[in-house]
Amino acid sequence: MHIANTTLIVRDYDAAIRFFVDALGFELVEDAPSTTDDGRPKRWVVVRPPGAETGLLLALADGDQQEAAVGRQWSGRVGLFLHVDDFDAAHRHMLEHGVTFDEAPRDEPYGRVAVFRDLEGNPWDLLGPTPT
Prior knowledge:
- By secondary structure, the protein is α+β, with helices and mostly antiparallel strands.
- The chain has helices at 13-23, 64-69, 87-96, and strands at residues 5-10, 27-35, 41-48, 55-60, 80-83, 100-101, 106-108, 111-117, 123-128.
- The protein is 20% helix and 39% strand.
- The longest helix has 11 residues, at 13-23.
């Protein structure tokens, strides 16, 4: 058993795809036409880190309630945790692609960490191994 996907509400499919693929190095797994429950067109867009089983379903905000949740999906808390093998390389790559970090990297007992924001403003942890 595993979680296949979790949803991230976004304002624009293509901007979200560019952010996750270019800035974070994710793979675009699916991008297919679909429809809403009431028959309006939408897309089924899934991205995920290379080798991962769990993906992010990028869902276009639909209606006032979902628009209000964009960038606030976890009420200001870190809601997603991106583990990488090479923290410094990932951090450098993300900075080069315009990713905003809330803080400088710091070392914790569980590893190297820095909070960053996705394209909608949701906070994430970038986590790497403890430096030796």
